[in-house]
Predict the 3D structure of the following.
Amino acid sequence: MIKKCLFPAAGYGTRFLPATKATPKEMLPILTKPLIQYGVEEAVEAGIMTMAIVSGRGKRAIEDHFDISYELEHQIKGGSKEVLLDEIRSLINQCTFSYTRQVEMKGLGHAILTGETLIGNEPFAVVLADDLCYHKEQGVLSQMREVFERYQCSVVAIEEIPLEHTHKYGVIAGKLVDGTDNTYRVTDMVEKPDPKDAPSNLVIIGRYILTPDIFDILRETKPGKGGEIQITDALLEQAKQGKVIAFKFKGKRFDCGGVDGFVEATNWFYEKIEE
């Protein structure tokens, strides 16, 4: 069973300045819910109730969001607005939230390693909140959990993109397994390659299930592209042993780390509610 989900949430969100100068990018709302709440709901749907959040300076709003606001609840108690807090109340009651700080921004790999103290020696999920995913019947993490239960190794979510955009992502090469058309055993991974150097157009998005040996690998991983510790480099070490599965998930994914994707997600969810 995957019992814990790690949320790296210490980044500065520079693509949304000045809005993110004092507001965590994970708290930017799609309609009436912040991005990180969508991620937590996806984890809960996958049966995960322990949320481990790697935060940083200026991120207290995340802790406050997943806590009871007695003054607010008193003010709206018995009124028509009380129902608007039902979803977040349910998450607070169901889940355990724990936090640690990433003191220096050294990349996603370093953020995940910082979360080791909250995870311990067990497999765990990772959600990047600014990758907002949706599938009506089964969330992406729930789909990935089934893949993990079958293969018992690290799993990364992938999607096909136009080749000219590979420089924004970690890109995989792999071989289809067990007669599937959406599950690959990874043979190579490259972080943000130029299109001419990309091994495929299958890119990793912000959903992972990782085995705990990743922490020891990350401790030995030297800074890579951009001077950061890349989770792609650590996963490649696992892939050399045949221990990484890439899964082409069902559903929609919005890159809400940039303005275009954020607006697209807002419009899409609004239209969905209208329907």
Summary: The mean pLDDT is 93. Residues 30 and 62 are 15 Å apart (CA to CA).
